[in-house]
Amino acid sequence: MAFLKNINDLRKIEWGRKHLWDVKFKDAPAPFNEWFPAISIEEGLSSLESHDVQSAMTSHKVPKASRFKDIKITFYDDQAGTLREWIKKWVNTDILNGGKYLSTLESSCKPVTILKLDHKRTPISTSTYFVYPETDLMFEGDSSSDAVMYAVNFHIVSTPTDNNGSI
Prior knowledge:
This protein is mostly beta strands. It is 13% helix and 36% strand. It has a single domain (17-48, 58-165), classed as Pnp Oxidase, Chain A (Roll), CATH 2.30.110. It has helices at residues 8-11, 82-95, 105-108, and strands at 21-25, 38-43, 49-54, 59-65, 70-76, 110-117, 123-133, 149-158.
């Protein structure tokens, strides 16, 4: 059996860190059109559902299907509400067209890029997704002096490597 010889075996590993990433929405308004001022991110990387199979004396699970993947981004906004207004316009105008008709999926999506970094801030990997916001965007005011913060779920439609870079 293999066991760790000593604590130095653990010290040799460069462990991943949760705080080393950047997010960018290419179409976001200034000053947020470079790297997105996100607090946290949850990136759906894979998804698998199972199906119960019953037999005479037992049951077991087998892979069945994949669910849609999402990205959840929590971010601070500026005093003018630039990001809130941009997402509100994206949903109400670009996708819902003021309630008159629904835009096509292709015109509803925007690219988001997630860059993962090592401890020296050197890029490790970059993922770009075409997404649309799937959320209820709510303004929440109270009497505290906290910064304005929003959490938005984005549904992943495709990646640029899917379908030769188009949706």
